[in-house]
Each structure stands twice: as C-alpha cells, then as structure tokens.
Amino acid sequence: MTRYTARNGLSRRTLLKTGVAAAAGTLAAPMVWAQSNIVLRQAGTGVSAFNDIATKVQGDLGITLEMTALDSDSVTQRVATQPDSFDIADIEYWICKKVWPTGNMQAMDTSRIANYDKIAGTFRSGKLTPTSDIAQGTAPHTVGFTSGANGKDFIQEESGWMTLIPTIYNADTLGIRPDLINRPIRNWSELLNPEFKGKASILDISSIGIMDMAMVVESMGEYKYPDKGNMTKAEIDLTLGIFTEAKKNGQFRAFWKSFDESVNLMASGEVVIQSMWSPAITAVRAQGVPCIYQPLEEGYRSWGGGMGLAASLKGAKLDAAYEYINWYLSGWAGGFLMRQGYYSAVPETSKEFMSADEWGFWYEGKKSKGDIVSPQGSKLEGPGAVRDGGSFIERMGAVACWNSVMDQNQYMVRKWNEFIAA
Amino acid sequence: MQKPRVNNALTGWLMVSPLAVVLFIFLVLPIVMIAVVSFWQTTAFSVIPAFQFDNYEFLFGSPVTYTVFVNTFKYAILTWMFTVVIGFTVAYYLAFHIRSLTWQVALFLLCTIPFLTSNIIRMISWIPFLGRNGIANSALISWGVIDQPVEWLLFSDFSVVLAFVHIYTLFMVVPIFNTMMRIDKSLIEAARDGGANGAQILWNVIVPLTKPGIMIGTIFVVTLVMGDFFTVRIMSGSQSANVGRLISNDISLLQYPSASATAIILLITVLIVIGILLRFVNIRKEL
To answer: I need a labelling partner for A399 at 20 to 30 A (CA). Which of A407, B54, B193, B243 fits?
Structure first.
C-alpha cells in the first residue's frame, strides 16, 4: 500500500480514515464536512492567505475557509482583543508570544497531528540539524509548547501540547536592485551606507524592524549584543539612536508596513536596498524588474508562522480545524507555499507535490533545469538559475536571529513610535 | 391660555430629544470613555483600569510630542493657506463671473467630480505621478528643466500638503461659494457707483461679507487636517508624523491608554483652535 498519494493529496491520517470508512461501507470523512457546511474563519498575516488554498480546502475537505489578511500588528490586535472574530489564527511565533498569555487561544494535542513527527526540528527541539546552534531571539520552539490544553505558559520541551502548528517559515535578508547598485553587497551595514542616501527603506513593524536594525548595528561594528533578541533599555536606545540619526540625515526614502508597499517601492526604483520578504522579491521579479534577495555575511533574520486555534472552538468545528491543519501539513499547501519562496514546516510531504526540478531549485539550491514558474503561472526563472542563498540547509543554517518580543517590549514599542515620528 | 404653552415646551423638548440622545450615545459617551481610558495602565497585551498620569507624563516628557504637534500645525496652516486662496478664487469666479445660474450649478457640480472616487484613491494616484521615475520627473527631464530626478516631489512635506490641498479644497469652495451667492449684487453696484475699482470692491465689500464662509471652510479644513493620519503616512512614506499618526501607531501596538491620552490632548488643542477662530467671525449669521 502506498502511504502517500501525490495524485489526490491524502495524508496518512485521512487515508487510514478513508480506508476504515470505506471498509465500514459509510461515506468518506470529507463528505461529512461538506454536509455540515463548516466554515472556518482564518485571520492572519498576508504571507499565507492565498485564495488557491481556500479553494483547494473546499474541494478536498468541504470546509469553507474565510481568510482575512491583515498586517502583523492588526492581527496581534485582533487576536488579543476580539477572540470571537476568528477560528484559526495564522500568525507568527513572535505574535504568539504576545497573545498566548491572553488565553484567547487553545493548545493543540500533538497526538491528533498526523505528521507531527515529520515537522522540521527547528520547531520542536530548536535545532535544524542535531549539531546546529540555536539563533538569538524568539525562536519558534521557545514559544511552541505549553503545559496542557488550557496552558497559558510556554514550555521549553516537546510537551504534547502545541501553541501553534508551524506552517511556513523563511530566512529573511535585504532585497536589492542589482541593476541600480552595480556592485556586490555583502553586509547588513550597507543599509545605512550614505551611498544609498534617500534610496533605502526598512519595515515599520517594530518586532521585526528592531531585529533588522540590530543586524545592521552589529555589522557596522557599533556594538555587539549579548542577545539581540532581548535587548536592555540602553541597547534599545543605542539601536534606535543610530537609526534616528540616519533617518534625520535622509537615509530612508520611505518605511513600509505591508507586503505590497515593499513591492511597489522596489519595483518603481524609489528604493534600491531595503528589508524585504521573499515573496515580495518574487513579485518584483514577476514584473520583469531585477531584484536579488541578497545573502549577507552576518546571516539571516528568520521568522516562522503557524496556525493556532481560537479558545472558543469546540465540537465539530474543532474537529474540522484539526482536519484542516492535518490537510495543511499533508503536502499540497506546503508545495504551493514552497513555490512562493517559503519553506514548509513538513518538507517531506511537500516534496510529493513538487516536480524534481522545483524541489531541486527551491529546497536543495540546485540549478534549475527548466522554467521555474510561480503557483499563479508566471515565469520566475529560466533554466540554469540558482536560488539566492542556496539550499535550505545553507539558508536556514545561517540564521542569526529570529523576530522577537523582548522583556522590554513595552519600552521598545514606545521608542519605536518615537523613531517613526522623529 | 396656560395649557398650550406647557404643551409647546414639552413638544420642544421632545423634538430635540432624539438628536440629544443620539449625540449623547455616539459622541459624548465615547469621548468620556476615551478620557477615562487615558488614565489607565497598560502591560504588553492587557489594559488595566487605574487612575494614574503615566501616559500624560510620557507624552509631555517626550520631545517627539512637541515636534509632532508643531508638524500638525505646520500641515494645517500650509493646507489652509493654499485651500483658502484656491477656494476663494474658484468660488469668486463661479459667483461673480458666471452669469447664468445653470452654468453656475453645472460648473459647481464639475468641482465635485473628483469626489466620485474615494479619498484614498485620489491620494495614492499621486504616488506614481510624483515618484523618482514618475510622470512629473520624466516630463521635467524631457523638457530639459532638470537633469536629475527631483527627490522632494514624493515622500516629503511637499507631497503631504499637495495631497491635503487636493483632497480638501472643495471643503473651502462650498461654504465660500454659498456665502458669496447671498451677497446682494446691489452692494457691488453701489460700490462701483461710488467710484471703487475692482480691487477695492473685492477687498472692502466682498471679502468682509464672505468672512463667515471662509471661517466655516477654515474649520472644516483645519479639523480634517489636524485629525488625519492616513494621508500623512502614505504621502510621506512614513517619514513624517502628525498627531494622528502618533495615535494610530499607538493603537496598532495595542497601547490604547497612551493613544487615548494623545487623543484627548489633540481634542483639546483642536477645540482651542476653533474657539480662537470663532472669536474673529460670527458664523451664526450663516446658519
């Protein structure tokens, strides 16, 4: 018996279920949801809110997925203040650190997650490979587990209760316009290089932006943080001080807050170097504008996203949510997102849904043999192209820090607000 | 004859009460709520009822607050200057140079056409126009006016004020036009007969009689600009801030008490500004 079927995308769990159901002569599991008209409201950051996924879920499971895409701060606000407005929160791990203690979400029983054992090590032990170091900041595994179904705390080992089921993650770096820069860029410090005065940008989301800033400050040799992910007040002052000065000197053209703003800034040539997200690079390139996700010597700033359940979910809806999450990890969604330039939390299953050439290009860092096409069908690369930064292990192995929520978050937020207003 | 009078009083009260109730629920209560929250305490993700002055202390203790308030006034004053000049000119043309009422109405409606799309679209459409490689810069370069693209066209105070003027000029045109239409034409004839030239008529007759309209337009424009946050964010590329942005940043970072404190101070400031404006002109004449 084949355990995975690439053709129709059934996970081991649904396969077993279907087998049992078929043996019992009753309807297959997905039909149940189709009959009961289950609707799941998913609120999340725009990074993974694709209609293609909703359509596929509707087809495979009969679950209607209503997606709301918001910027990171708005999602945080939504989860913290309007617990009844969503069923599934598709958020990042640093957001989880902020909102988990509110009790608006419930933990997930890992024994109900079919592919739990195949989830990448980064999200379980924190180690990508058994020998790798854990980067600074809010690493996903530090906020990935809690003590029980109603736990409000974080537990540092695999407790069987997950706060978020990891879905996608990536290693972020600076995006550049090679045609307008015309020289190699190797360090984070280039963001504040006066050469790019009025042509640089940074993102206006404090928990992410502060980490980009820390990478720049260290790269400039101004300061070496004992822990970038948990700065003291003095370190926050120092970091934002350097950037406020740069801002006053006109270093930045603009700040961006949403994904599409960053695409427009780069594609229009307003900005030639900026903090960026991987699919934004893809979007710029899809417009025919050269853009590189530049690997830098100091390493990457990484982030991870996952889905959590609203505390109010119960009964059939809760079961449907588990079904959906199992479906998400079973491969089709992972393959879809890998072709956007993200990494799937369960690479093994995603592989089944990608061609060997796609897998080689996106995951293994190999030269493409044919055209590399985006999930929407536009051509991204021709034959012979190599992904910026190389393979999964090369990129995720060079992560220097994770997006973070610090002990001094309150202070940082106020200082950040001052920086934006300065 | 006492009975009908009592009834009159009662009817009067009944007639104002729906509005009073609506205003109380949707205006007074929220403002009271904001004032109350401004004294609360906040932690990373929760807001705790309290009575302390931390939020105000932080607000007045931060030099950024003062810069931001100065910025807010700067935008308000600049926008006001341009809208009043443009608004007055347009209204004057419509009221005194167009003779037929039909044409007046037609041209007036023409002024409102940009309002058929949303504020945001009208504002954002400036971005590709003013950008480094935008239409404005490429046109100027091809005409030989400049060699290098002009940077300050976009993401600058210039673009912010430009967008404000574009969006809010109509708010100046409408009340000024309205007042001008009420000016008795015989006054102008009398001035002409008395030997006044065009400039004298404009300055000594029309402007004084239009003051209430200018004032109403001013109140619209000033309050709208001082309360705005989105235009400033988009058109300055997040590079400059006014008070509205300070509040919206706070809200997006879940700092409700701090946002409330800033909102209260902004409200008081705007009320003071309007109070001062009303000292100059009695707008009741218009109402």
So the answer is: A407
